[in-house]
Amino acid sequence: MTHHLGQASSMSDHSITVDLLRIVQTYLKPCRSRSPGVAEVLEKLDFHLTYSQLELDIKPSVPIDKEALLDQSITAITDKALQPIAKQLEQARNKLTWRIDNGLFYAEQANVGESYRSGNMHSELIGPEGCVFRDESFRLGLFILAPTTLYRDHNHTAPELYINLTGPCGWRFSPKDWQDFNAGSLLWNPSGLTHATRTYQQPMLSIYSWTKDIKSQCSVIPMDDWSGIERQLTNEKSQNL
Ligand SMILES: [Fe+2]
């Protein structure tokens, strides 16, 4: 079930989303040297914010059972430097189209696991379909993982930048061990690098970007510790209810 958040977007609705992208651009400008990918993302943002036409046929919506997660995720942005993004995201919340990845990025039978299936949501702002700015070769959006979720090991041809707005959350990059990253961390996944993510008591809310090969599918890479991690996360969840 989806909650439709009003009529198709108007120009003024879009200006709220465009302002969000401008705030992200301002945040990223001093970060060029902190991670590969930032310069490319900034170049694309500059281009769209300067030259692109707005797409006006967007119908804002959020899956009904994810409304609380969305609010919880925005509230979980507590880092001081990220407050301008958090405040604008509060404004933009009902102007965006929020979707669950249910085979959008993976083959339908891919073994992504129940915790990911029921715990993910995203809103794409720049990309090939249903975005404020259309781009056939670049994606940028917001990605949410519910608390105590394992996003199993996977890879994709598209190189990927994550700007984490909440934290800490755990990441591992094959063949390395789990490592925690705080809000404000930038993570670059080069083409084909296997990576996994797990969340703790806070949801993960991040800005993601795919800088090329954006139509490539994701592949799940089997690991033998998934069920143990997912059991542990389920226990943590029940302890905190
Ligand atoms: Fe990824």
Quick structural summary:
With about 240 residues, the protein is α+β, with helices and mostly antiparallel strands.
Layout of SSEs?
Elements: E1 2-4, H1 11-28, H2 38-51, E2 61-63, H3 67-75, H4 83-92, H5 114-119, E3 120-127, E4 133-134, E5 139-145, E6 150-155, E7 160-164, E8 169-173, E9 179-181, E10 186-189, E11 195-199, E12 204-210, E13 219-220, H6 226-239
Parallel strand pairs: 3-4
Antiparallel strand pairs: 1-2, 3-5, 5-12, 6-11, 6-13, 7-10, 7-12, 8-9, 8-11
Helix pairs in contact: 1-2, 1-4
Bound molecules: fe (ii) ion.
The site of fe (ii) ion (FE2) has 4 residues, from loops.
Q: How many beta-strand segments? A: 13
Which ligands are bound?
fe (ii) ion
| Biggest β-sheet strands, sense, barrel | 6 strands, mixed
Q: How many angstroms does the end-to-end distance come to?
A: 25 Å
Q: Detail the poorly predicted runs.
A: none
Overall form = globular
Broad CATH class: Mainly Beta
Task: Specify Rg, calculated over alpha carbons.
Answer: 17 Å
Level-2 CATH architecture = Sandwich
Overall mean pLDDT = 93
The CATH homologous superfamily is named Jelly Rolls
Please, how many domains? 1
Question: Order of strands in the sheet with the most strands?
Answer: 4-3-5-12-7-10
Helix content: 25-40%
Pattern of helices and strands: EHHEHHHEEEEEEEEEEEH
Number of helices: 6
